[in-house]
Write a structure and sequence with these properties.
Helix content: 25-40%
Number of strands: 5
Structural class: alpha/beta
Shape: globular
Distance between the termini: 51 Å
Order of helices and strands: HEEEHEHEHHH
Radius of gyration: 17 Å
Strand content: 15-25%
């Protein structure tokens, strides 16, 4: 029935703002943010991402017209494909894309526990909120507004590469996310 398709799967806040992890793939955070392109910022898209709490590394992203279940599953498919056989706890907000039956079945298939922010508590997912904020302030806003979707995709790709391989942080002992990860694996 139609109601079954709209059934919401609300999960507990298992993460509970415990943002300290000791290795990759313990906790992945997911969220999306709006980006604009075209003359007078006419076009808007959603940039979805999966952020590993370890080293605050954005391990996958996806650009789509709206934040929906398909786009979030696509983002996670990319993450699991590139990271291999891992089973992180996944923390999201309570948006309809994340509380959908299909998204939750997808996580179960990947043996991942789903944790959700409490209502009206954006701090529960603050590391990825902060990541998007930095990405916009220190990358997107420093470049001209892309005229086309292709230009926007290229700008985002270059920005993701910059933050992963060039952006050094004191919280990572002066390393980039990629270097920090490589150090944990060796």
């Amino acid at each position: 029935s139609q109601k079954d398709n709209e059934e919401e799967y609300i999960k507990d806040n298992i993460l509970n703002q415990n943002f300290k992890v000791s290795q990759p793939h313990q906790v992945w955070l997911a969220d999306s943010t709006q980006l604009e392109y075209g003359i007078k910022h006419k076009h808007k898209v959603q940039l979805s991402g999966v952020l590993d709490l370890y080293g605050r590394r954005m391990i996958s992203y996806h650009i789509s017209p709206s934040e929906d279940t398909d786009s979030e599953i696509s983002t996670f498919k990319k993450a699991f494909k590139s990271m291999g056989d891992v089973h992180p706890m996944v923390h999201t907000d309570r948006g309809s894309a994340f509380s959908s039956k299909r998204f939750n079945i997808f996580l179960i298939q990947h043996e991942s526990i789903h944790s959700m922010s409490r209502p009206g508590t954006p701090y529960d997912n603050s590391p990825i909120e902060r990541w998007w904020n930095d990405f916009k302030l220190r990358w997107i806003n420093l470049h001209e507004t892309p005229k086309t979707l292709e230009e926007l995709k290229l700008l985002v790709k270059d920005g993701m590469n910059y933050f992963d391989t060039l952006d050094r942080s004191e919280t990572r002992n002066g390393l980039t996310p990629k270097e920090y990860w490589n150090e944990s694996i060796s």
